[in-house]
Amino acid sequence: MSSDTLAAESTASLRVERSPGHLGEHVSEVVLTGPGKGNALGPDFWRDIPAVFARLDADPSVRVVLIRGSGSCFTYGLDLPAMLGGGLPGLLKDAPSVADRAALLDTIRQMQGSLTAVEACRKPVVAAVHGWCIGGGVGLIAACDVRLCSADARFSVREVRLAIVPDIGPIQRLPRIIGEGMTRRLAMTGEDFDSARAERIGLVSDVYPDEGSLLAAGRDLCGVLAGNSPLAVQGTKQILNASRDLPQGASLEHVAVWNSAFLPSGDLREAVTAFMEKRQPRFQGT
């Protein structure tokens, strides 16, 4: 698929468009569109999002991804009625068969892989949250690199209120973001919390007055990220991701090897030249 086609791609649950912000030709916006109420995450979403992020990852013109919701909220979370009909058949049986349980295991693994595709995307991913962000929505933003929200944002790791153990990544990723103690509280109570608390515990880095200012700030941030060397930004993300599972010494060796391979670059020469000429660098990712 060409970059031009990707810039205007739509699926059953997502819309992908080029950002109108600064350096928007290098920023793709992934917009949650449903089809469930409140952009709920049904079978279409879990199928669509890994394929979309694989294409964004492979597109050299894309340097940053902004993910946001359409309409009045980010997402109401798992579209349980749709999943019971199309993704989790047999879940409510009195006596699920071995085949039913095996199919459920396959579905959970596929859903986990869908959010891992967001986390593994080499391009930085910025989440801009307005309105409700519930359950699987929190799992989705936990897989992003940066999280922003508007003052009206509301969050909940709500699975326990539906007799579900959160199983698509939030209780694995959130402790690194907000700490284990807070993750345990939020995941075991299922309580709702507002934007001020989300900022206080570190789930989001900034809160903006309304959706319009949130989107403008998100696009500005994406423009800053897109203006840096793609080699350095993507390398920094990959080193950070790898370092979570490495001892400090191994992580230091990893980044040393990375820079020995990628530091000699056209981007580095451009950075030095721009500094000497007292101008902004124009990075090409080469």
Could you please describe the fold and organization of this structure?
It is built from twelve helices and nine strands. Helix 2 packs parallel to helix 4 (98-120), helix 5 crosses helix 6 (170-178) and helix 10 runs antiparallel to helix 11 (248-262). The chain has 286 residues and is an alpha/beta fold. The two termini are 22 Å apart. The model is unreliable at 1-5 (pLDDT under 50). The longest helix is centred in the middle third of the chain and has 23 residues, at 98-120.
CATH level 1 name of the largest domain = Alpha Beta
Question: What is the total domain count?
Answer: 2
Spatial strand order of the main sheet:
1-2-3-4-6-9
The third-level CATH topology of the largest domain is: 2-enoyl-CoA Hydratase, Chain A, domain 1
Q: Which sequence of SSEs, written as H and E, runs from N to C?
A: HEEHEHHEEHEEHHEHEHHHH
Whole-number mean pLDDT? 93
In total, the number of strands is 9
Shape category: globular
Look at the structure and name the CATH superfamily of the largest domain: 2-enoyl-CoA Hydratase, Chain A, domain 1
Tell me the fraction of residues in β-strands, as a range. 5-15%
Percent helix: 40-55%
CATH level-two architecture of the largest domain: Alpha-Beta Complex
- Which stretches are low in confidence, meaning pLDDT under 50 for 5 or more residues running? 1-5
